[in-house]
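Supplementary Methods. Inverse-folding protocol.

Structures were first reduced to a discrete structure-token string of length 137. This string, shown here, constituted the complete conditioning input.
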């Protein structure tokens, strides 16, 4: 029997994997989500219903890490645009949507979303410093 894992994109990185569960009583429990990231920005969520081949195409690139043979859904997060595009099959199950929506709220597994968020914060902070210094001239 095949087991499916949900994976998602963050800045061209497909996220996935498992780690120990960190329960947060202030966040809803969602299967497969092990941690919520502190300070995660509020994102506009856009739900896209697509064919399975489109999910494979959208949710995988040469730079992505794959954690299962078959990807059933994904969430593509753009911190710059403050959007989270969820890609689901046209006949999806509620657990798929719940899992991807949790990623849009900062739900992580494997720490890859945390790493991508930290990189984005560093880049955004450096850009703000550069703009401030240019304004001082």
């Amino acid at each position: 029997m095949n087991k499916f894992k949900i994976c998602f994109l963050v800045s061209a990185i497909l996220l996935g994997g498992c780690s120990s569960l960190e329960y947060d009583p202030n966040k809803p429990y969602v299967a497969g989500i092990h941690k919520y990231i502190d300070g995660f920005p509020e994102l506009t969520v856009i739900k896209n219903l697509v064919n399975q081949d489109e999910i494979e195409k959208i949710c995988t690139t040469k730079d992505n890490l794959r954690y299962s043979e078959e990807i059933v859904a994904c969430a593509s997060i753009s911190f710059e645009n403050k959007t989270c595009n969820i890609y689901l099959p046209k006949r999806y199950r509620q657990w798929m949507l719940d899992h991807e929506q949790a990623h849009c709220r900062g739900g992580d597994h494997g720490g890859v979303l945390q790493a991508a968020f930290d990189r984005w914060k560093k880049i955004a902070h450096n850009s703000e410093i550069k703009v401030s210094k240019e304004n001082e001239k």
